[in-house]
Amino acid sequence: MNISVLNTGPFRINTWIVELCKNKVLIFDPAACSVTNDSLEIVNFLKANNLEPAAFLLTHGHFDHITGTGICKSFFPDAPLALHKEDLPMVGASAADAQKNQLEAMGLGMIVPALKGLPEPDAAFSGEPLLSSVIEAKDPDVAAALSAWKVLHTPGHTEGSVCYYNEKEKILITGDTIFYHSWGRTDFPGGSERKMVKSLERIYSSLPDDVLVYPGHDYAGFALTEKGRKKAKIKIERHKTISNFLEKVLLIPSDDIEKTSKQIEYSMPTDVLEKFIKFLTFMETCSCKEPKWVKSYKHFINNGELQDKCKNCINTNKSGSIECECKCC
């Protein structure tokens, strides 16, 4: 299967052009626009290679992935534009208003004009359909080729983030859900660390190692190897550990756990966060009967290390009760 990439739009994202059948192709995340002086890059590539788009497919609705939808639809109006319905408010006629504040906050107000007057999607799907049920194809060969592609709903980066999976060809178009040994950020409006963790857990636990990943940015064509799984597992376990700590120890209300967990993960320096997680993981398995985790944490911060037992229950005296040896307790 031929896969071509064009780096287009404000952030030079990976716009994927994937062979479907005959001269038909799927275009993922068209971003070429006038603001970046590459409006016709996708159109010219298609014409130069005698290719026709069967559809323009969005992995999510963020500005840097949608700015080329207008110019592409003007040249190929019969090719449907599709995305998950949860990201509908971010695209089409409402795109500029929906993303203006975020862009201006990032110092990228000059991109707002590229979001004005964008076309409305032709299809907004929910669930995890096959592309053959999203895109109507009169040609039976095209319909059959579309049926090989399945939508995987992977919220986290945005509520409507999806990956497009071809099991036979072992290809996964991930947008901003998975990058090379990394994943998309969740601190933009609509992002969710909790949902991102679930999406990563699902992908890494259910898809084979040899599936090749084509993300929305940077290095592509890498496999879902053991190293990538290990890094994802660390993130998954880290998030679960922090959430459990907030819920069971600090008694944070469930509605606030997502926000507080995200603040901890994004505000702590990496080395401090690693120590903090190590401490929480250790305390989860501690057999100490008394909730003296505050004193143990103080000792941990002062000494920067953990022994094989909780600092509150290093020794057991002759009477069988816990006797703390920690001097800072």
Report what the structure shows.
- The chain is built from ten helices and 15 strands.
- The chain is globular.
- A six-stranded mixed β-sheet has the order 1-2-3-4-5-6.
- By secondary structure, it is an alpha/beta fold.
- Counting DSSP H or I runs of 4 or more residues, the number of helices is 10
β-strand percent reads: 15-25%
Low-confidence stretches: 287-295, 306-329
> How would you characterize the largest beta sheet?
6 strands, mixed
For the record, give the distance between the C-alpha atoms at the N and C termini, rounded to a whole number: 64 Å
Q: How helix-rich are the residues, as a percent range?
A: 25-40%
Structural class: alpha/beta
Q: What characteristic shape results from the CA principal axes? A: globular
Q: What oligomeric arrangement do these chains adopt?
A: single chain
Strand order of the largest sheet: 1-2-3-4-5-6
The overall pLDDT average reads 83
Radius of gyration: 24 Å
The ordered H/E elements are: EEEHEHEHEHHEEEEEHEEHHHHEE
- How many DSSP-defined strands? 15
Which properties best describe this structure?
329 residues; five-stranded mixed beta sheet; 35% helix; alpha/beta; globular; disordered C terminus; 10 helices; single chain
